[in-house]
Amino acid sequence: MSRKLLGALGWFGLVALLSPGQAYAMHIMEGFLPAPHAILWAIVTLPFLVAGLRSIQNTVKEAPHLKMLLGLAGAFVFVLSALKLPSVTGSCSHPTGVGLGTILFRPAAMSVLGIIVLFFQAVLLAHGGLTTLGANTFSMAVVGPFVSYGLYKGSCRLGAPLAVAVFLAAALGDLATYVTTSAQLALAFPAQTGGFWESFVKFNAIFAVTQVPLAIGEGLLTVVVFNLLSVYSRGELRDLSIPVREVRA
Amino acid sequence: MIHIDQYAYANRLRAVHPGEKLAFAAITAGICLASPSLIGQLAILMTMAAATVAIVGIPWRFYLKLMLVPAAFLLAGIVTVAVSFSSQPDPGLHGIDLWGFAVGIRDRDFVVASSLVARSLGTVSCLYFLSLSTPMVEIIGVLKRCRVPAVLVELMTIIYRFIFVLMETTRQIHTAQVSRLGYHSLSASYRDLGQLTSCLFHRSMLKSQMLFVTLSSRCYSGEIRVLEPRRRLSLRRGLLIGGIDAVLLAVALATRGWQRW
Question: What number is the average pLDDT over the span B27-40?
Fold first, then answer.
């Protein structure tokens, strides 16, 4: 098995290096999932969306200006995903904005903002799709934010420096998103001989080439951003009830 | 800035009721996704591409470029589905021997991968028909009428409006940075992009406060109301959409059994 794995990694590394390089966050493209899978993922995502909408409705009732804040937050996340991360290899990759958005605006709000941002990315940028909106929302706006937030809170509680907590939240949030997407693809297209697991390893290996550097890059960027925010935007961070401490990158 | 959005506001189907365009794209995408036949999916791709270029009036060069946007994902995806390995020689695997591994394509996987390409591109062409012919504001209007929760619709309206404002802000900050020797090395790039992002965040929060003040001074009470252009539903176009989709469905059903190679 490990020999097979090694061979798979080597081969797919080669293929992925040769494929053209604009690495976006991994969204499943329009029409790629068979209809039953597309519908199933939409149903799985629905409760999170409803819970997120409920929590937003309650907060907005008490403080109506938060609706504007969330709207701008959504636009901010969309524009973040259009920025280009500096990279050593020369291929350009784009951050997902999940880590930063989650720490700033909480996972419940991120699930709602996430589905809207994914909808706009599909329609305006032809990136992702409407039939795969459920699956993409589940990986990027449910799993990603919850992993990010859990890691952020967990490592803060364990007394890790804020820079470490922020880096882990952003980088591993991205990785969790990409592994979830690979699992969704492997469930839809299991290999003929090795079944789900072989296919899962194949999808993980081929997308690792773009997604692992992206996760590290986004982790670094988020630390830099958070460091600056804790110096220049203390007021806003306090309004969002985030502890303001000095971070060092 | 976003070309798709520009075409959505300036195309030949601009005056058509958005519900008709949405229904056409959605029904055809549904047929494509559920279609068991490769030929049915290719027929949908051809029909939608022809409709988008000839009727909506999108330049075909731009349309082709747009079709290449998901190419990287599609390529990586189908290679992953199609290519398999085996550490023992495998007669079912058509391919080469690479460092002691048999690397190749199985018959069944080839069929799966090729129908995957047809299905994906077919559905993509339906999405493009919608996004190139219908402005986002009108799509949101249709969603509102379909009883999508008001909070969601309003958030979409605000987000859509401010995407362009923030993109323009980003462009200005980036120009200012580059003209002052920003992004000249890898570490400088991270620092500068970090500054850009934190500045963008700061401006976003400021804009949200200003938006609330502005709306409050205009009697905002939790709901943004805007006039929507009145569009008429046309029976003739409805019949045309129904006819085209019926033909596509018939093609998909009639060619169902053709795929057994």
Answer: 90
Query: Predicted ipTM?
Result: 0.92
Using alpha carbons only, give the angle B147, B148, B154 rounded to the nearest 5 degrees.
120
Tokens for B36, please give them: 């068991």
What pLDDT sits at residue A244?
Answer: 59
Within 10 angstroms of residue B184's Cβ, the number of other Cβ atoms is 10
Cβ of B159 and A232 within 8 Å?
Answer: no
Task: Using the predicted structure, report yes or no on whether residue B102 has a pLDDT greater than 80.
Answer: no
Take residue A107 and report the two structure tokens written for it: 């996972």
Average pLDDT across chain B, whole number: 89
CB atoms within 10 A of CB A176: 22
Contact B209, A65 (CB under 8 A): yes
Quick check: B167 and A31 CB within 8 A? no
Which token pair is A6? Answer: 């090694």
More confident residue, B37 or A17: B37
Q: Does pLDDT of A123 surpass 80?
A: yes
**Are residues B119 and A35 in contact, defined by beta-carbon separation less than 8 angstroms?**
no
* Cβ-nearest to A79 among B33, B161, B163: B163
Q: Which of A14, A45, A124 to mutate to test the interface with B (most CBs of B within 10 A)?
A: A124
| Of the candidates A146, A129, A145, the residue with the CA atom closest to the CA atom of residue A42 | A129
Q: Choose among A74, A207, A224: nearest Cβ to B159.
A: A74
Q: Is-contact B198 A83, C-beta < 8 A? A: no
Task: Give the span between the Cα atoms of A247 and B36, in whole angstroms.
Answer: 56
Query: C-alpha distances in angstroms, A179 versus A38, A45, A48, A200, B47?
Result: 18, 17, 19, 9, 36
Domain coordinates in residue numbering, chain B: 1-134+231-261, 149-229
| DSSP strands (E only) in chain B | 83-86, 93-98, 101-106
Number of H helices and number of E strands within chain B?
A: 10, 3
Looking at chain B, the whole-number percentage of residues with pLDDT higher than 90 is 61
Cβ pair B159:A193 closer than 8 A: no
- Looking at residue A179, its pLDDT comes to 94
Dihedral (C-alpha) A215, A216, A217, A223: value to the nearest 10 degrees?
110
A120 and B163 in contact by Cβ < 8 A? yes
Q: What is the pLDDT of residue A90?
A: 59
Residue whose pair of structure tokens reads 């550490």 in the numeric block: B87
